[in-house]
Q: What sequence folds into this?
């Protein structure tokens, strides 16, 4: 660069105005002629671009924090920080506006959720009142696994005080398979479980289900040893058994 | 009706009841969402991964339904299921015990989950916004346009290795810290933050802060003053190198 072609050379402030598109016509005319000042403007623009590349939205909170703020899930200090940022940052304010339509009220409306969680259980749960002795029940150690415990089935009580007993037995039915059989009796043998379903779950996931016949019997084949959860659904009552272990440990 | 505390049920029992309640919902019967809330509670409060897996399983179809109808979905370069997975991952990372305690009910938690899906979309939109800014600032418009098109076609949210993402973020923070060291007062901080962090023009900065400046030229004067200082800062030059 040899120097300004149309001295005096442009002031830095004028170059800033040019870079931002705010320059006076005289400044634009100067730059059209003067290579020296044009190069200075270019240097300024490059520096500005690098700063914008590096700093654009450098202090914006992650979107999850905006969501948490929107849903009042932040503590007071966190909320204050986000509030202050939103007052400054038009980008985050625009993102917040996008989140407005996703309020809990909208979720209620779209997914038919009750706005308050009342006691709306239609199926009552039976209360476990007695069963085997202490420790996790184990089934299937021996072919007659329940011998010794067979006289002590799981006993539950529904909300009206009626007893429900569930006796279980497991036997090996192949190299690894086990057959689980059970009997559900309500009111101390006066009345068998008229109908229902036993759900078998393992590690929280549904494993399968089997019907309870008119006499209260059910059976199911299990492919492997392990811990299982059983839930007997008897129409108006649901019985959640404690976790049982089938097979050798 | 008796109240059975969901907290007393086994995880299997909770999952079972959640499924039962979903069936009731489909049959337009009264539903009780306390079991699903309890599933979230165990996952988040107890950091129970198994419970969280059940939450994902239970609500995956619902979140997928939300995201597939989202207006920003056309910007998302991957499958809807990838976004659903991202939403659950974000909630698992971000939802603290304290945040859970402030949630009032299941709807709050589902709202947050939905926001997490939207957050992933917003994060992607932010990355695109940054790329667009870079392109608009670059010198060759033709090359820039083709670069932008190319980057939009090939980039996925995970295309940059995580360590590079972290490094880039750290470098940006270092740059910002160094720039802040060169600022002498609140007025300078306001102008530089608005110019480079918020990408506002001096005219916009003045319009938003009329009480702080006499006119637009005043904003330019502050900017020019700081810029001269920044150009002479050796540590900043080192960071740029």
A:
């Amino acid at each position: 660069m040899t120097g300004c072609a149309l001295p005096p050379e442009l002031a830095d402030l004028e170059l800033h105005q040019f870079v931002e598109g705010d320059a006076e016509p005289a400044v634009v005319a100067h730059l059209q002629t003067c290579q020296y000042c044009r190069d200075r403007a270019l240097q300024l623009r490059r520096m500005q671009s690098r700063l914008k590349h590096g700093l654009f939205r450098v202090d914006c909170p992650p979107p999850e924090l905006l969501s948490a703020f929107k849903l009042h899930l932040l503590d007071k200090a966190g909320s204050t920080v986000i509030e202050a940022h939103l007052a400054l940052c038009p980008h985050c304010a625009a993102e917040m506006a996008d989140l407005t339509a996703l309020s809990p009220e909208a979720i209620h409306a779209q997914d038919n959720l009750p706005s308050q969680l009342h006691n709306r259980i239609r199926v009552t749960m039976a209360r476990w009142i007695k069963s085997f002795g202490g420790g996790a029940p184990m089934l299937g150690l021996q072919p007659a696994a329940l011998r010794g415990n067979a006289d002590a089935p799981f006993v539950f009580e529904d909300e009206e005080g009626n007893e429900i007993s569930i006796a279980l037995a497991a036997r090996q039915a192949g190299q690894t398979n086990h057959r689980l059989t059970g009997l559900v009796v309500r009111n101390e043998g006066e009345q068998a479980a008229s109908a229902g379903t036993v759900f078998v779950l393992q590690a929280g996931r549904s494993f399968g289900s089997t019907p309870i016949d008119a006499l209260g019997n059910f059976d199911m084949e299990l492919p492997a040893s392990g811990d299982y959860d059983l839930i007997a659904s008897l129409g108006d009552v649901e019985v959640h058994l404690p976790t049982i272990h089938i097979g050798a440990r | 009706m008796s109240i059975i505390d969901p907290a007393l049920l086994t995880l299997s029992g909770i999952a079972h009841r959640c499924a039962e309640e979903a069936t009731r919902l489909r049959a337009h019967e009264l539903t009780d969402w306390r079991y699903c809330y309890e599933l979230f509670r165990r996952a988040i409060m107890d950091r129970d991964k198994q419970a969280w897996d059940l939450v994902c399983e239970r609500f995956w179809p619902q979140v997928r339904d939300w995201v597939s109808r989202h207006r920003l979905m056309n910007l998302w370069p991957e499958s809807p299921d990838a976004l659903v997975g991202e939403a659950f991952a974000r909630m698992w990372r971000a939802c603290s015990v304290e945040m859970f305690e402030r949630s009032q009910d299941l709807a709050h938690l589902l709202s947050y989950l939905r926001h997490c899906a939207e957050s992933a979309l917003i994060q992607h939109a932010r990355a695109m916004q940054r790329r667009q800014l870079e392109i608009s600032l670059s010198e060759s418009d033709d090359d820039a346009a083709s670069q932008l098109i190319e980057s939009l076609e090939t980039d996925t949210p995970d295309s940059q290795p995580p360590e590079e993402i972290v490094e880039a973020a750290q470098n940006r923070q270092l740059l910002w810290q160094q720039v802040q060291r060169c600022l002498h007062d609140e007025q300078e901080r306001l102008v530089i933050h608005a110019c480079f962090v918020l990408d506002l023009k001096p005219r916009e900065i003045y319009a938003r802060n009329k009480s702080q400046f006499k006119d637009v030229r005043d904003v330019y004067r502050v900017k020019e003053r700081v810029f001269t200082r920044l150009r002479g800062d050796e540590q900043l030059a080192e960071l740029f190198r």
Observations:
- The first strand of chain A starts at residue 124 and ends at 125.
- Residues 35-55 of chain A form the longest helix (21 residues).
